[in-house]
Protein backbone atom coordinates (compact mmCIF):
# COMPACT_ATOMS: atom_id res chain seq x y z
CA UNK A 1 0.00 0.00 0.00
CA UNK A 2 1.40 3.37 -1.09
CA UNK A 3 0.21 6.51 0.69
CA UNK A 4 1.26 10.11 -0.01
CA UNK A 5 0.84 12.66 2.80
CA UNK A 6 0.68 16.41 2.13
CA UNK A 7 0.78 19.52 4.31
CA UNK A 8 0.36 22.87 2.56
CA UNK A 9 -1.09 26.38 2.34
CA UNK A 10 -0.30 27.65 5.85
CA UNK A 11 3.44 27.34 6.53
CA UNK A 12 6.18 24.73 6.16
CA UNK A 13 4.56 22.76 3.36
CA UNK A 14 5.85 19.20 2.99
CA UNK A 15 5.24 15.76 1.53
CA UNK A 16 5.84 12.25 2.84
CA UNK A 17 5.57 8.81 1.25
CA UNK A 18 4.71 5.51 2.95
CA UNK A 19 5.09 2.17 1.20
CA UNK A 20 3.45 -0.41 3.43
CA UNK A 21 4.82 0.36 6.91
CA UNK A 22 8.08 1.98 5.75
CA UNK A 23 8.65 5.73 5.63
CA UNK A 24 10.30 5.96 2.21
CA UNK A 25 10.77 9.73 1.96
CA UNK A 26 9.77 13.06 3.51
CA UNK A 27 10.86 16.63 2.75
CA UNK A 28 9.81 20.25 3.13
CA UNK A 29 9.06 22.29 0.03
CA UNK A 30 11.32 25.14 1.20
CA UNK A 31 14.40 23.01 0.57
CA UNK A 32 13.60 22.90 -3.15
CA UNK A 33 12.12 26.37 -3.77
CA UNK A 34 14.62 28.11 -1.42
CA UNK A 35 11.72 30.10 0.10
CA UNK A 36 11.98 29.77 3.88
CA UNK A 37 8.84 28.30 5.46
CA UNK A 38 7.31 28.01 1.98
CA UNK A 39 3.53 27.60 2.33
CA UNK A 40 2.81 26.80 -1.32
CA UNK A 41 1.71 23.51 -2.79
CA UNK A 42 4.68 21.12 -2.29
CA UNK A 43 5.03 20.05 -5.92
CA UNK A 44 8.79 19.55 -5.77
CA UNK A 45 8.68 17.74 -2.44
CA UNK A 46 6.01 15.39 -3.84
CA UNK A 47 8.05 14.82 -7.00
CA UNK A 48 11.07 13.93 -4.88
CA UNK A 49 9.10 11.50 -2.68
CA UNK A 50 7.64 9.75 -5.73
CA UNK A 51 11.04 9.52 -7.42
CA UNK A 52 12.60 8.14 -4.25
CA UNK A 53 9.95 5.44 -4.18
CA UNK A 54 10.25 4.75 -7.90
CA UNK A 55 6.61 5.70 -8.34
CA UNK A 56 4.35 7.78 -10.50
CA UNK A 57 1.40 9.51 -8.83
CA UNK A 58 -0.82 6.95 -10.57
CA UNK A 59 0.88 4.26 -8.47
CA UNK A 60 -0.22 5.91 -5.22
CA UNK A 61 -3.24 4.31 -3.57
CA UNK A 62 -4.21 7.20 -1.29
CA UNK A 63 -3.34 10.90 -1.01
CA UNK A 64 -3.96 12.42 2.42
CA UNK A 65 -4.12 16.09 3.42
CA UNK A 66 -3.11 16.97 6.97
CA UNK A 67 -6.18 18.94 8.10
CA UNK A 68 -9.85 19.56 7.34
CA UNK A 69 -10.38 22.95 5.69
CA UNK A 70 -14.14 23.12 6.24
CA UNK A 71 -13.69 22.81 10.00
CA UNK A 72 -11.02 25.49 9.89
CA UNK A 73 -13.36 27.76 7.91
CA UNK A 74 -16.09 27.12 10.49
CA UNK A 75 -13.71 28.26 13.23
CA UNK A 76 -12.79 31.36 11.24
CA UNK A 77 -16.44 32.38 10.74
CA UNK A 78 -17.47 31.69 14.33
CA UNK A 79 -14.53 33.66 15.64
CA UNK A 80 -15.35 36.70 13.53
CA UNK A 81 -19.03 36.50 14.49
CA UNK A 82 -18.13 36.25 18.18
CA UNK A 83 -16.02 39.42 18.07
CA UNK A 84 -18.05 41.42 15.51
CA UNK A 85 -17.90 44.22 14.54
CA UNK A 86 -14.24 44.19 15.65
CA UNK A 87 -11.87 42.58 13.23
CA UNK A 88 -13.61 43.51 10.00
CA UNK A 89 -10.29 44.41 8.33
CA UNK A 90 -8.86 41.01 9.15
CA UNK A 91 -12.07 39.32 8.00
CA UNK A 92 -12.05 41.23 4.71
CA UNK A 93 -8.42 40.26 4.12
CA UNK A 94 -8.97 36.57 4.83
CA UNK A 95 -12.23 35.94 2.98
CA UNK A 96 -11.05 36.33 -0.66
CA UNK A 97 -8.33 33.73 -0.14
CA UNK A 98 -10.76 31.31 1.45
CA UNK A 99 -13.46 31.83 -1.17
CA UNK A 100 -10.99 31.57 -4.03
CA UNK A 101 -8.83 28.67 -2.81
CA UNK A 102 -8.96 27.18 0.66
CA UNK A 103 -12.72 26.58 0.89
CA UNK A 104 -12.53 24.45 -2.23
CA UNK A 105 -9.32 22.71 -1.27
CA UNK A 106 -10.24 19.38 -2.83
CA UNK A 107 -10.47 20.99 -6.26
CA UNK A 108 -7.26 22.94 -5.64
CA UNK A 109 -5.43 19.77 -4.65
CA UNK A 110 -6.74 17.89 -7.68
CA UNK A 111 -5.63 20.61 -10.09
CA UNK A 112 -2.24 20.91 -8.38
CA UNK A 113 -1.65 17.15 -8.42
CA UNK A 114 -2.83 16.54 -11.97
CA UNK A 115 0.47 17.55 -13.65
CA UNK A 116 2.13 14.73 -11.70
CA UNK A 117 -0.35 12.09 -12.91
CA UNK A 118 -1.03 10.23 -16.13
CA UNK A 119 -4.69 11.27 -16.15
CA UNK A 120 -3.78 14.65 -17.58
CA UNK A 121 -6.29 16.22 -20.01
CA UNK A 122 -5.58 15.11 -23.57
CA UNK A 123 -4.13 11.73 -22.58
CA UNK A 124 -5.47 8.98 -24.82
CA UNK A 125 -8.09 6.84 -23.12
CA UNK A 126 -7.09 3.22 -22.45
CA UNK A 127 -9.04 0.38 -23.96
CA UNK A 128 -9.53 -3.31 -23.14
CA UNK A 129 -7.47 -4.68 -20.27
CA UNK A 130 -5.66 -1.31 -19.92
CA UNK A 131 -8.92 0.29 -18.77
CA UNK A 132 -9.20 -2.21 -15.91
CA UNK A 133 -5.77 -1.21 -14.59
CA UNK A 134 -6.25 2.51 -15.00
CA UNK A 135 -5.67 4.39 -11.71
CA UNK A 136 -8.61 5.88 -9.94
CA UNK A 137 -9.12 9.62 -10.45
CA UNK A 138 -7.21 11.80 -8.01
CA UNK A 139 -10.40 12.98 -6.32
CA UNK A 140 -11.37 9.43 -5.41
CA UNK A 141 -7.99 8.87 -3.76
CA UNK A 142 -8.02 12.04 -1.66
CA UNK A 143 -8.51 11.75 2.11
CA UNK A 144 -8.47 14.43 4.82
CA UNK A 145 -7.23 14.03 8.41
CA UNK A 146 -7.86 16.40 11.31
CA UNK A 147 -4.85 18.57 12.12
CA UNK A 148 -4.16 17.37 15.67
CA UNK A 149 -4.75 13.76 14.72
CA UNK A 150 -2.10 14.19 12.00
CA UNK A 151 0.32 15.55 14.61
CA UNK A 152 -0.49 12.81 17.10
CA UNK A 153 -0.05 10.10 14.45
CA UNK A 154 3.31 11.56 13.42
CA UNK A 155 4.50 11.16 17.02
CA UNK A 156 2.97 7.85 18.10
CA UNK A 157 3.30 5.56 15.09
CA UNK A 158 7.06 6.10 14.47
CA UNK A 159 7.78 5.97 18.22
CA UNK A 160 9.30 2.90 19.93
CA UNK A 161 6.24 2.53 22.21
CA UNK A 162 3.48 -0.10 21.99
CA UNK A 163 1.31 2.15 24.14
CA UNK A 164 1.71 5.83 24.94
CA UNK A 165 0.03 9.12 25.68
CA UNK A 166 0.44 11.69 22.92
CA UNK A 167 0.41 15.38 23.78
CA UNK A 168 0.03 17.78 20.85
CA UNK A 169 0.65 21.49 21.45
CA UNK A 170 0.64 24.15 18.73
CA UNK A 171 -0.92 27.44 17.69
CA UNK A 172 -4.19 26.07 16.33
CA UNK A 173 -5.38 23.37 13.96
CA UNK A 174 -9.04 23.46 12.99
CA UNK A 175 -10.29 24.16 16.54
CA UNK A 176 -7.86 22.29 18.78
CA UNK A 177 -4.76 24.00 20.20
CA UNK A 178 -3.90 21.33 22.78
CA UNK A 179 -4.89 17.68 22.63
CA UNK A 180 -4.21 14.50 24.55
CA UNK A 181 -4.43 11.18 22.72
CA UNK A 182 -4.00 7.54 23.69
CA UNK A 183 -2.12 5.29 21.30
CA UNK A 184 -2.06 1.53 21.55
CA UNK A 185 -1.00 -0.79 18.75
CA UNK A 186 -2.63 0.54 15.60
CA UNK A 187 -5.31 2.52 17.48
CA UNK A 188 -5.00 6.22 18.30
CA UNK A 189 -7.81 8.10 20.01
CA UNK A 190 -8.07 11.75 20.99
CA UNK A 191 -9.13 11.89 24.65
CA UNK A 192 -9.24 15.62 25.43
CA UNK A 193 -8.85 18.93 23.63
CA UNK A 194 -8.51 22.62 24.44
CA UNK A 195 -9.91 24.83 21.70
CA UNK A 196 -9.07 28.15 20.06
CA UNK A 197 -8.53 30.94 21.06
CA UNK A 198 -6.90 29.43 24.16
CA UNK A 199 -3.47 28.32 23.02
CA UNK A 200 -0.01 27.89 24.55
CA UNK A 201 1.49 28.20 21.08
CA UNK A 202 -0.25 31.52 20.45
CA UNK A 203 0.68 32.75 23.93
CA UNK A 204 4.33 32.08 23.11
CA UNK A 205 3.92 33.66 19.66
CA UNK A 206 2.40 36.76 21.27
CA UNK A 207 5.61 37.28 23.23
CA UNK A 208 7.63 36.46 20.11
CA UNK A 209 5.83 39.33 18.37
CA UNK A 210 6.08 41.66 21.37
CA UNK A 211 9.85 41.20 21.70
CA UNK A 212 10.46 42.13 18.05
CA UNK A 213 10.68 38.71 16.37
CA UNK A 214 8.62 37.26 13.55
CA UNK A 215 5.75 34.95 14.44
CA UNK A 216 6.08 31.34 13.19
CA UNK A 217 9.85 31.65 12.77
CA UNK A 218 11.18 33.76 15.65
CA UNK A 219 10.07 31.48 18.47
CA UNK A 220 13.53 29.84 18.47
CA UNK A 221 15.06 33.27 19.04
CA UNK A 222 12.76 33.93 22.00
CA UNK A 223 13.76 30.59 23.52
CA UNK A 224 17.46 31.42 23.00
CA UNK A 225 16.99 34.86 24.56
CA UNK A 226 15.30 33.56 27.72
CA UNK A 227 18.47 32.53 29.67
CA UNK A 228 19.74 36.12 29.54
CA UNK A 229 16.77 37.30 31.58
CA UNK A 230 14.98 36.59 34.84
CA UNK A 231 11.37 35.32 34.98
CA UNK A 232 10.29 38.39 36.92
CA UNK A 233 7.04 38.67 34.92
CA UNK A 234 5.97 35.03 35.20
CA UNK A 235 3.48 35.72 38.01
CA UNK A 236 2.07 38.68 36.06
CA UNK A 237 1.46 36.37 33.12
CA UNK A 238 -0.26 33.85 35.41
CA UNK A 239 -2.30 36.56 37.15
CA UNK A 240 -3.51 38.35 34.02
CA UNK A 241 -2.92 36.47 30.76
CA UNK A 242 -3.48 32.78 31.50
CA UNK A 243 -5.53 30.94 34.10
CA UNK A 244 -3.45 27.78 34.47
CA UNK A 245 -5.10 25.00 36.47
CA UNK A 246 -3.28 22.31 38.49
CA UNK A 247 -4.03 19.72 35.78
CA UNK A 248 -2.49 21.94 33.07
CA UNK A 249 -5.79 23.01 31.52
CA UNK A 250 -5.93 26.74 30.88
CA UNK A 251 -7.78 29.72 29.50
CA UNK A 252 -6.36 32.97 28.15
CA UNK A 253 -7.83 36.39 28.93
CA UNK A 254 -8.51 37.58 25.39
CA UNK A 255 -8.58 41.23 26.43
CA UNK A 256 -4.78 41.09 26.23
CA UNK A 257 -4.58 39.59 22.73
CA UNK A 258 -5.59 40.73 19.26
CA UNK A 259 -5.00 37.65 17.07
CA UNK A 260 -8.72 36.82 16.86
CA UNK A 261 -9.77 40.09 15.29
CA UNK A 262 -6.69 42.04 14.28
CA UNK A 263 -3.58 41.72 12.22
CA UNK A 264 -1.30 41.71 15.27
CA UNK A 265 -0.83 39.37 18.24
CA UNK A 266 -1.18 41.69 21.26
CA UNK A 267 -3.61 44.40 22.37
CA UNK A 268 -3.11 47.81 23.94
CA UNK A 269 -3.99 46.30 27.32
CA UNK A 270 -1.08 43.85 26.89
CA UNK A 271 1.23 46.76 26.04
CA UNK A 272 0.18 48.72 29.13
CA UNK A 273 0.69 45.68 31.34
CA UNK A 274 4.30 45.28 30.23
CA UNK A 275 5.26 48.93 30.01
CA UNK A 276 5.09 49.97 26.39
CA UNK A 277 4.61 49.01 22.74
CA UNK A 278 6.24 45.98 21.09
CA UNK A 279 9.92 46.22 20.23
CA UNK A 280 10.18 47.14 16.53
CA UNK A 281 11.40 44.32 14.32
CA UNK A 282 15.16 44.32 13.83
CA UNK A 283 16.03 46.18 17.04
CA UNK A 284 18.37 44.56 19.55
CA UNK A 285 16.40 43.23 22.53
CA UNK A 286 17.09 44.83 25.89
CA UNK A 287 16.70 43.64 29.45
CA UNK A 288 12.90 44.03 29.32
CA UNK A 289 12.69 41.63 26.37
CA UNK A 290 15.10 39.19 28.02
CA UNK A 291 13.02 39.12 31.20
CA UNK A 292 9.80 38.69 29.22
CA UNK A 293 11.34 35.80 27.27
CA UNK A 294 12.43 34.13 30.52
CA UNK A 295 9.00 34.68 32.02
CA UNK A 296 6.87 33.20 29.23
CA UNK A 297 9.34 30.34 28.89
CA UNK A 298 8.87 29.51 32.57
CA UNK A 299 5.08 29.58 32.19
CA UNK A 300 5.16 27.30 29.13
CA UNK A 301 7.43 24.84 30.95
CA UNK A 302 5.12 24.72 33.95
CA UNK A 303 2.04 24.25 31.75
CA UNK A 304 3.61 21.36 29.83
CA UNK A 305 4.76 19.61 33.00
CA UNK A 306 1.32 19.99 34.61
CA UNK A 307 -0.42 18.58 31.54
CA UNK A 308 1.82 15.52 31.47
CA UNK A 309 1.73 14.93 35.23
CA UNK A 310 -2.07 15.00 35.26
CA UNK A 311 -2.40 12.77 32.19
CA UNK A 312 0.00 10.16 33.56
CA UNK A 313 -1.71 10.21 36.96
CA UNK A 314 -5.15 9.78 35.39
CA UNK A 315 -4.26 7.00 32.95
CA UNK A 316 -1.32 5.23 34.58
CA UNK A 317 0.52 5.38 31.23
CA UNK A 318 3.99 6.88 31.62
CA UNK A 319 5.32 6.65 28.04
CA UNK A 320 4.70 10.00 26.38
CA UNK A 321 5.05 11.27 22.81
CA UNK A 322 5.07 14.97 21.86
CA UNK A 323 4.16 16.73 18.61
CA UNK A 324 3.05 20.17 17.41
CA UNK A 325 5.13 23.32 17.15
CA UNK A 326 5.46 23.75 20.93
CA UNK A 327 7.17 20.34 21.05
CA UNK A 328 10.14 22.00 19.32
CA UNK A 329 10.71 23.98 22.53
CA UNK A 330 13.66 21.85 23.62
CA UNK A 331 14.07 23.75 26.90
CA UNK A 332 10.56 22.77 27.97
CA UNK A 333 11.23 19.23 26.75
CA UNK A 334 14.35 19.05 28.87
CA UNK A 335 12.47 20.19 31.95
CA UNK A 336 9.75 17.62 31.23
CA UNK A 337 12.37 14.87 30.92
CA UNK A 338 13.87 15.86 34.28
CA UNK A 339 10.44 16.19 35.90
CA UNK A 340 10.10 12.42 35.87
CA UNK A 341 6.34 12.10 35.35
CA UNK A 342 7.02 10.62 31.91
CA UNK A 343 9.24 7.58 32.40
CA UNK A 344 9.91 7.45 28.65
CA UNK A 345 9.67 10.42 26.29
CA UNK A 346 9.80 10.51 22.47
CA UNK A 347 9.43 13.65 20.36
CA UNK A 348 8.73 13.73 16.64
CA UNK A 349 11.76 15.51 15.04
CA UNK A 350 9.49 17.20 12.48
CA UNK A 351 7.03 18.23 15.18
CA UNK A 352 5.69 21.29 13.31
CA UNK A 353 3.32 21.46 10.35
CA UNK A 354 5.80 19.76 8.01
CA UNK A 355 5.50 16.62 10.11
CA UNK A 356 1.75 16.75 9.61
CA UNK A 357 2.27 15.37 6.11
CA UNK A 358 3.83 12.22 7.57
CA UNK A 359 1.23 12.00 10.33
CA UNK A 360 -1.65 12.27 7.85
CA UNK A 361 -0.27 9.36 5.84
CA UNK A 362 0.26 7.27 8.98
CA UNK A 363 -3.22 8.06 10.33
CA UNK A 364 -4.78 7.06 7.02
CA UNK A 365 -2.88 3.77 6.97
CA UNK A 366 -3.64 2.67 10.50
CA UNK A 367 -6.96 4.35 11.33
CA UNK A 368 -8.89 4.85 8.09
CA UNK A 369 -7.56 1.80 6.24
CA UNK A 370 -7.11 -0.48 9.25
CA UNK A 371 -3.58 -1.63 8.48
CA UNK A 372 -1.60 -3.15 11.38
CA UNK A 373 1.33 -1.41 13.03
CA UNK A 374 4.74 -2.89 13.71
CA UNK A 375 6.41 -1.23 16.69
CA UNK A 376 9.95 -0.23 15.64
CA UNK A 377 12.91 -1.42 17.68
CA UNK A 378 14.30 2.12 18.07
CA UNK A 379 12.06 4.45 16.11
CA UNK A 380 10.90 4.50 12.50
CA UNK A 381 12.32 7.92 11.58
CA UNK A 382 15.71 6.60 10.40
CA UNK A 383 17.52 9.41 12.16
CA UNK A 384 15.20 11.86 10.31
CA UNK A 385 17.34 11.37 7.20
CA UNK A 386 14.45 11.05 4.76
CA UNK A 387 15.35 13.63 2.10
CA UNK A 388 17.41 13.69 -1.11
CA UNK A 389 20.94 12.28 -1.39
CA UNK A 390 23.57 12.36 -4.14
CA UNK A 391 26.05 9.67 -5.12
CA UNK A 392 29.75 10.45 -5.39
CA UNK A 393 29.84 10.69 -9.20
CA UNK A 394 26.89 13.10 -9.22
CA UNK A 395 28.50 15.22 -6.49
CA UNK A 396 31.72 15.53 -8.47
CA UNK A 397 29.86 16.47 -11.66
CA UNK A 398 27.76 19.09 -9.90
CA UNK A 399 30.70 20.70 -8.10
CA UNK A 400 32.75 20.76 -11.29
CA UNK A 401 29.91 22.47 -13.15
CA UNK A 402 29.72 25.08 -10.37
CA UNK A 403 33.42 25.90 -10.78
CA UNK A 404 34.52 24.35 -7.50
CA UNK A 405 38.07 23.14 -6.87
CA UNK A 406 38.14 20.00 -4.74
CA UNK A 407 40.10 16.89 -3.82
CA UNK A 408 38.53 13.44 -3.70
CA UNK A 409 39.69 11.55 -0.61
CA UNK A 410 39.17 8.09 0.82
CA UNK A 411 37.10 7.92 4.01
CA UNK A 412 39.99 7.70 6.49
CA UNK A 413 41.82 10.67 4.96
CA UNK A 414 38.61 12.72 4.75
CA UNK A 415 37.83 12.23 8.45
CA UNK A 416 41.44 12.94 9.46
CA UNK A 417 41.71 16.17 7.45
CA UNK A 418 38.29 17.43 8.55
CA UNK A 419 39.10 16.68 12.20
CA UNK A 420 42.42 18.52 11.83
CA UNK A 421 40.62 21.53 10.36
CA UNK A 422 38.12 21.58 13.20
CA UNK A 423 40.93 21.37 15.75
CA UNK A 424 42.51 24.41 14.04
CA UNK A 425 39.25 26.34 14.70
CA UNK A 426 38.08 26.21 11.10
CA UNK A 427 34.37 26.08 10.31
CA UNK A 428 33.45 22.97 8.31
CA UNK A 429 30.47 22.53 6.02
CA UNK A 430 29.43 18.87 6.28
CA UNK A 431 27.15 17.55 3.49
CA UNK A 432 26.64 13.78 3.71
CA UNK A 433 23.91 11.32 2.71
CA UNK A 434 20.21 12.00 2.91
CA UNK A 435 18.94 15.44 3.96
CA UNK A 436 17.15 15.70 7.30
CA UNK A 437 13.36 16.06 7.59
CA UNK A 438 12.39 18.73 10.11
CA UNK A 439 14.03 21.97 11.25
CA UNK A 440 17.19 20.50 12.81
CA UNK A 441 20.47 19.71 11.05
CA UNK A 442 21.63 16.39 12.46
CA UNK A 443 24.92 15.75 10.69
CA UNK A 444 23.76 15.48 7.08
CA UNK A 445 23.45 19.21 6.23
CA UNK A 446 25.49 20.78 9.03
CA UNK A 447 28.10 23.42 9.77
CA UNK A 448 30.53 22.07 12.34
CA UNK A 449 33.14 23.71 14.55
CA UNK A 450 35.37 23.24 17.62
CA UNK A 451 33.30 23.69 20.81
CA UNK A 452 36.44 24.35 22.90
CA UNK A 453 37.02 27.74 21.28
CA UNK A 454 35.76 30.72 23.32
CA UNK A 455 35.54 32.74 20.10
CA UNK A 456 33.55 30.25 18.04
CA UNK A 457 30.02 31.12 19.20
CA UNK A 458 30.42 34.76 18.20
CA UNK A 459 32.36 33.93 15.01
CA UNK A 460 29.74 31.51 13.72
CA UNK A 461 26.85 33.87 14.48
CA UNK A 462 28.37 36.97 12.94
CA UNK A 463 30.57 35.67 10.09
CA UNK A 464 28.94 32.41 9.04
CA UNK A 465 25.25 32.44 10.01
CA UNK A 466 24.83 36.26 9.82
CA UNK A 467 22.40 36.25 12.73
CA UNK A 468 21.94 37.69 16.22
CA UNK A 469 24.98 37.34 18.49
CA UNK A 470 23.00 35.87 21.39
CA UNK A 471 21.83 32.77 19.50
CA UNK A 472 23.24 29.58 21.07
CA UNK A 473 24.74 26.62 19.23
CA UNK A 474 24.13 22.95 19.86
CA UNK A 475 26.62 20.23 20.70
CA UNK A 476 26.70 16.92 18.85
CA UNK A 477 28.27 14.38 21.19
CA UNK A 478 29.20 10.73 20.76
CA UNK A 479 26.41 8.77 22.45
CA UNK A 480 28.87 6.73 24.48
CA UNK A 481 30.35 9.90 26.03
CA UNK A 482 27.24 12.00 26.69
CA UNK A 483 27.04 11.33 30.45
CA UNK A 484 30.65 12.44 30.94
CA UNK A 485 30.01 15.85 29.39
CA UNK A 486 26.36 16.64 30.16
CA UNK A 487 23.77 16.10 32.89
CA UNK A 488 22.08 13.55 30.65
CA UNK A 489 22.45 9.79 30.47
CA UNK A 490 20.16 8.84 27.63
CA UNK A 491 19.38 9.38 23.98
CA UNK A 492 18.69 12.73 22.37
CA UNK A 493 19.15 11.89 18.66
CA UNK A 494 17.01 14.74 17.31
CA UNK A 495 18.46 17.69 19.26
CA UNK A 496 15.17 18.18 21.11
CA UNK A 497 16.32 18.05 24.74
CA UNK A 498 18.21 20.67 26.73
CA UNK A 499 20.39 19.63 29.66
CA UNK A 500 23.19 21.29 31.62
CA UNK A 501 26.88 20.77 30.98
CA UNK A 502 28.33 18.32 33.52
CA UNK A 503 29.56 20.08 36.64
CA UNK A 504 33.12 18.79 36.33
CA UNK A 505 33.27 20.30 32.82
CA UNK A 506 32.26 23.80 33.96
CA UNK A 507 34.57 26.75 34.61
CA UNK A 508 34.00 28.83 37.73
CA UNK A 509 33.14 32.44 36.92
CA UNK A 510 33.55 35.33 39.32
CA UNK A 511 31.01 38.05 38.58
CA UNK A 512 30.91 39.43 42.12
CA UNK A 513 33.20 42.39 41.51
CA UNK A 514 31.59 43.45 38.23
CA UNK A 515 28.34 41.54 37.62
CA UNK A 516 27.51 41.19 33.96
CA UNK A 517 23.96 41.52 32.65
CA UNK A 518 22.23 40.96 29.35
CA UNK A 519 24.31 40.13 26.31
CA UNK A 520 27.53 41.09 28.14
CA UNK A 521 27.27 37.68 29.83
CA UNK A 522 28.39 36.17 26.52
CA UNK A 523 31.95 37.29 27.22
CA UNK A 524 32.54 34.76 30.00
CA UNK A 525 33.47 31.17 29.07
CA UNK A 526 31.49 28.85 31.35
CA UNK A 527 32.82 25.39 30.53
CA UNK A 528 35.48 23.43 28.68
CA UNK A 529 33.17 23.65 25.65
CA UNK A 530 32.16 27.35 25.75
CA UNK A 531 30.91 27.49 22.15
CA UNK A 532 27.95 25.24 23.04
CA UNK A 533 27.41 26.30 26.68
CA UNK A 534 24.63 28.83 27.13
CA UNK A 535 24.79 31.48 29.86
CA UNK A 536 22.79 29.22 32.21
CA UNK A 537 25.17 26.28 31.58
CA UNK A 538 22.58 24.59 29.36
CA UNK A 539 23.04 22.99 25.95
CA UNK A 540 20.65 21.62 23.30
CA UNK A 541 22.11 18.16 22.91
CA UNK A 542 22.31 15.79 19.97
CA UNK A 543 23.60 12.32 20.76
CA UNK A 544 25.27 10.64 17.78
CA UNK A 545 24.93 6.87 17.53
CA UNK A 546 27.34 4.86 15.36
CA UNK A 547 24.55 2.70 13.94
CA UNK A 548 22.25 5.59 13.02
CA UNK A 549 24.83 8.17 11.85
CA UNK A 550 27.96 6.16 10.94
CA UNK A 551 29.78 8.87 8.95
CA UNK A 552 29.02 11.64 11.42
CA UNK A 553 30.05 9.36 14.28
CA UNK A 554 33.36 8.57 12.57
CA UNK A 555 34.11 12.26 12.04
CA UNK A 556 33.46 13.14 15.70
CA UNK A 557 35.50 10.10 16.74
CA UNK A 558 38.42 11.39 14.66
CA UNK A 559 38.09 14.79 16.35
CA UNK A 560 37.94 13.06 19.73
CA UNK A 561 41.10 11.07 19.00
CA UNK A 562 42.92 14.27 18.06
CA UNK A 563 41.66 16.55 20.84
CA UNK A 564 40.25 14.40 23.65
CA UNK A 565 36.87 16.11 23.13
CA UNK A 566 33.98 13.92 21.81
CA UNK A 567 31.82 16.98 21.03
CA UNK A 568 31.49 19.28 18.01
CA UNK A 569 29.40 22.38 17.39
CA UNK A 570 26.54 21.44 15.08
CA UNK A 571 24.38 24.09 13.40
CA UNK A 572 22.28 23.98 10.26
CA UNK A 573 23.97 24.49 6.89
CA UNK A 574 22.36 27.79 5.91
CA UNK A 575 22.53 31.50 6.59
CA UNK A 576 19.89 33.69 8.17
CA UNK A 577 16.76 33.93 6.05
CA UNK A 578 17.55 30.92 3.85
CA UNK A 579 16.48 27.28 4.16
CA UNK A 580 18.99 24.55 4.89
CA UNK A 581 20.95 23.56 1.76
CA UNK A 582 19.65 20.60 -0.23
CA UNK A 583 22.06 20.12 -3.16
CA UNK A 584 25.85 20.15 -3.58
CA UNK A 585 25.55 23.39 -5.58
CA UNK A 586 23.70 25.08 -2.72
CA UNK A 587 26.32 23.84 -0.27
CA UNK A 588 29.06 25.33 -2.45
CA UNK A 589 27.13 28.61 -2.74
CA UNK A 590 26.77 28.89 1.04
CA UNK A 591 30.44 27.98 1.47
CA UNK A 592 31.51 30.72 -0.93
CA UNK A 593 29.20 33.34 0.56
CA UNK A 594 30.35 32.89 4.17
CA UNK A 595 33.53 32.51 6.20
CA UNK A 596 33.30 28.71 6.22
CA UNK A 597 36.88 27.52 5.53
CA UNK A 598 36.31 23.84 4.69
CA UNK A 599 33.55 21.96 2.91
CA UNK A 600 33.10 18.19 2.73
CA UNK A 601 30.51 16.99 0.20
CA UNK A 602 30.55 13.23 0.10
CA UNK A 603 34.25 12.42 -0.27
CA UNK A 604 35.07 15.76 -1.92
CA UNK A 605 36.99 18.19 0.28
CA UNK A 606 37.06 21.90 -0.63
CA UNK A 607 39.30 24.53 0.92
CA UNK A 608 38.34 28.17 0.67
CA UNK A 609 41.84 29.30 -0.36
CA UNK A 610 41.78 26.93 -3.37
CA UNK A 611 38.62 28.40 -4.91
CA UNK A 612 38.70 30.75 -7.95
CA UNK A 613 39.35 34.39 -7.09
CA UNK A 614 36.41 36.70 -7.71
CA UNK A 615 33.70 34.08 -7.49
CA UNK A 616 30.97 35.26 -5.11
CA UNK A 617 27.45 34.28 -4.30
CA UNK A 618 24.53 36.56 -5.21
CA UNK A 619 21.33 36.73 -3.15
CA UNK A 620 19.71 33.84 -5.05
CA UNK A 621 22.55 31.46 -4.25
CA UNK A 622 23.84 31.50 -7.83
CA UNK A 623 27.32 32.67 -8.77
CA UNK A 624 28.51 35.88 -10.30
CA UNK A 625 31.85 37.70 -10.51
CA UNK A 626 32.52 40.32 -7.82
Give a written overview of the molecule.
It is a single chain. This protein is of the alpha/beta class and 626 residues long. The chain contains 21 helices and 23 strands. It has 2 domains: 148-356 and 368-380, 2-Layer Sandwich (Nucleotidyltransferase, domain 5), CATH 3.30.420.40; 392-625, Alpha-Beta Complex (DHBP synthase), CATH 3.90.870.20. The strands form 5 sheets. The chain has a 9-stranded mixed β-sheet with strand order 13-21-20-14-15-19-16-18-17, with helices on both faces. Strand 6 and strand 7 form a beta hairpin. It is globular.
Largest sheet: 9 strands, mixed
Mean pLDDT: 91
Strand order of the largest sheet: 13-21-20-14-15-19-16-18-17
CATH class of the largest domain: Alpha Beta
Which term fits the overall shape?
globular
Q: Any idea what the CATH superfamily of the largest domain is called?
A: Carbamoyltransferase, C-terminal domain
Q: What is the helix content? A: 25-40%
Question: What is the domain tally?
Answer: 2
CATH architecture of the largest domain: Alpha-Beta Complex
Strand content: 15-25%
Q: List the uncertain runs.
A: 119-131, 618-626
Determine the number of helices (DSSP H or I, runs of at least 4 residues): 21
Structural class: alpha/beta
* Overall strand count: 23
Amino acid sequence: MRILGISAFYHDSAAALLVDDQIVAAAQEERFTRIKHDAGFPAQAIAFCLARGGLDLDDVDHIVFYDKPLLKFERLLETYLSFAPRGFRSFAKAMPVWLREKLFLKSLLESSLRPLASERPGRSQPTGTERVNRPRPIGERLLFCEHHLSHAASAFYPSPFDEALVLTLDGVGEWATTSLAHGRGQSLQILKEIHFPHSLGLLYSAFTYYTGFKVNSGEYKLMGLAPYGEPRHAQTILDHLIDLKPDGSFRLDMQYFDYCTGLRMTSERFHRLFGGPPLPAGQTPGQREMDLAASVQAVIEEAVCRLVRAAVAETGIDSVCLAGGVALNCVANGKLARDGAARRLWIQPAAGDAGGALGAALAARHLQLGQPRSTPAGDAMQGARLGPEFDQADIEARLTAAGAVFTVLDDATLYAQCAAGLADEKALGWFQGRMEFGPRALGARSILADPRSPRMQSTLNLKVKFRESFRPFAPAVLREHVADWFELDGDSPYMLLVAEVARHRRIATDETTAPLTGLDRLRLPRSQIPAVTHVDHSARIQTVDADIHPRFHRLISAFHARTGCPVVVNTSFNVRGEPVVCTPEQAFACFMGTDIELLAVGNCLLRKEDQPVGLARDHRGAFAPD
